[in-house]
Amino acid sequence: MKIQRLCTRRQAVMDALISEAKSRIASGQELNCYVDHLLSEVKSLTEQQITMLLWEPIIETSDTTLVTTEWAVYELAKDPMRQDRLFQEIQSVCGSNKFTEENIAQVPYLGGVFHETLRKYSPAPIVPLRFAHEDTEIGGYFIPAGSEIAINIYGCNMDKKQWENPEEWQPERFLDGQNDPADLYKTMAFGAGKRVCAGSLQASLIACTAIGRLVQEFKWNLREGEEESVDTVGLTTHKLNPFHAIIRPRPRN
Fold this sequence. Notes:
Blueprint: H1 2-26, H2 34-41, H3 47-78, H4 80-94, H5 108-120, E1 130-131, E2 136-138, E3 141-143, E4 148-149, H6 153-157, H7 183-186, H8 200-217, E5 218-222, E6 232-233, E7 238-239, E8 245-249
Antiparallel strand pairs: 1-4, 2-3, 5-8, 6-7
Helix pairs in contact: 1-2, 3-5, 3-8
C-alpha cells in the first residue's frame, strides 16, 4: 500500500510537469529544457516512457545532492572553527549581499568543504555493476570475460595508502588546487570517462550554493549526543538517524 501511494503521488507530480510543458509548447514558447525536447522531438516515446525518463534524473540528482549538503552541514556543525572560516570567507566576498552561485569560485574553502564531504560520505558508495565483455586487466587485477564488477568508491576514498587520515574530515586537503576542476574526479563521486555524471556541474553548484547560504544565514551547532550518530543506510549514504542541530540566525551587518 505504501508503494502504491508513493507511485500515485509520483504520477501526479509527473502529470502536472508534463501538462505544463505541453501548454508551454502549444503557446509557441521556445523549447529550452529536457521535457520540452522529449515531448516535441521524440515522437516514438509513450507518455509512460517519458514519465520514467523524467523521473530518473529528478530522483538521482535530488537525493544525492541533498545527502551531500546534509553531511557537509553536519560536519560544519561539529567543527565551529572550520564553520567560522567558511563564514568569514563568504563575508569577505559577499558582505551584506546574499551568497549566490556566482560567488562560489571566489570562496575556495567552500570547494574544499564540498569535495571533502564527497570523499568521506560518498553519496553513491558503490558504482553500479559493470559487465566485462572480454578479458581485461585493471590495476593489476585480471577480470575474465563475463564477469560483473562493482567498484567500492567508499573503500577507495578511505584508503590510507591514498589519503592521509581518511577518517578525518579535512577540507584543507582540497585547497592546493584552488578549486581545480580535477577535484571532481579525485573522489570519483561523479564517475569519469564516457560514463561521467552529466549533472556533476549542476550538482556542485546547487550543493555549494545551499551550503554557502545555510552558513551565511545561520550558526550551526550539534544537539548533545548528535556527534556519535554517523552510521548510514540505503543505496545513498543517508544518515541512519535524523540530523538534529541547534541553529541561530547570524546578526545582520
